[in-house]
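Lecture notes, part 5. Sequence design as translation. It can be helpful to think of inverse folding as translation between two languages: the language of shapes and the language of residues. The source text, in structure tokens, appears below.
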């Protein structure tokens, strides 16, 4: 016997609230995962992640499954802070383009006839929001270990993670850049990486770069599709697998900055996202990496 009464499904152990920048403008929507039990004496480790509207539920479920069985996973409990937007969709493509695009940025035609132009170049402002507004708010709500903080971003978000590493290398101790759009706007992030590598300042921390097998070649189900030629041309332009691997090789040259590279088999640019979240949780909350 079934009931016609439907109960909305909630994201486990997750609080959702909006927070605005002191400079004004639209707010960000924050998905705060709070682990059970008492915080360790040094405070909770934290994983910040982008595009939270798309992956907050996935992140919460992966955390509670893995951290509940630490002997089988090596994962300990931690706080997760998802940064998204007040939208019902998985993405706000206009706002994320601005937030995650490194300066100087460019202006592109609207996605829809009545929509606003798409602008990039706001990554420094977004990073300042995370550092100066969001982090203090999370520390006000929960005991946080300031020496165990990680950040995850995918695609444009992966590009933002690299930009943040090069701009403020002390902001996090773990950096997870998944399928980064390194090719974007003339691959300016490569020049930023070269400048970062050339600096004599001592570095510390760990970097993980992740990419899917089918981000630079056709997946079996794409072979023979009507858009095959267009997709192959896109692969040739973005070269996401090659660029991600080369970025990992560059960063491996930085003393004190341990760099790992993972090629996830069988995944495309979008289907790789859950695997990236899974890898990020293990990377951020594995006690052996503390």
């Amino acid at each position: 016997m079934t009931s016609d009464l439907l109960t909305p499904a909630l994201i486990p152990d997750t609080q959702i609230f909006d927070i605005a920048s002191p400079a004004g403008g639209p707010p960000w929507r924050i998905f705060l995962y709070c682990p059970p039990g008492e915080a360790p004496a040094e405070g909770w480790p934290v994983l910040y992640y982008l595009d939270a509207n798309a992956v907050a539920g996935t992140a919460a479920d992966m955390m509670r499954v893995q951290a509940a069985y630490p002997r089988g996973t090596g994962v300990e409990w931690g706080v997760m802070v998802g940064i998204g937007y007040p939208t019902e969709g998985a993405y706000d493509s206009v706002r994320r383009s601005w937030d995650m695009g490194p300066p100087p940025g460019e202006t592109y035609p609207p996605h829809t006839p009545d929509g606003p132009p798409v602008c990039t170049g706001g990554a420094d402002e977004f990073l300042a929001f995370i550092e100066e507004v969001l982090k203090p708010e999370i520390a006000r709500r929960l005991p946080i270990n300031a020496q165990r903080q990680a950040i995850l971003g995918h695609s444009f978000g992966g590009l933002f993670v690299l930009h943040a590493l090069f701009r403020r290398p002390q902001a996090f101790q773990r950096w997870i850049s998944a399928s980064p759009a390194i090719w974007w706007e003339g691959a300016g992030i490569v020049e930023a990486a070269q400048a970062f590598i050339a600096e004599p300042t001592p570095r510390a921390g760990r970097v993980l770069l992740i990419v899917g097998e089918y981000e630079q070649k056709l997946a079996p189900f794409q072979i023979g599709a009507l858009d095959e030629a267009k997709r192959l041309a896109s692969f040739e332009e973005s070269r996401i697998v090659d660029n991600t691997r080369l970025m990992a090789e560059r960063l491996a040259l930085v003393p004190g900055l341990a760099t790992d590279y993972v090629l996830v088999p069988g995944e495309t640019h979008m289907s790789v996202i859950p695997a990236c979240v899974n890898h990020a949780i293990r990377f951020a909350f594995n006690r052996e990496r503390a």
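The translated text above is only one of many valid answers, since several sequences can fold into similar shapes. The mean pLDDT is 94.
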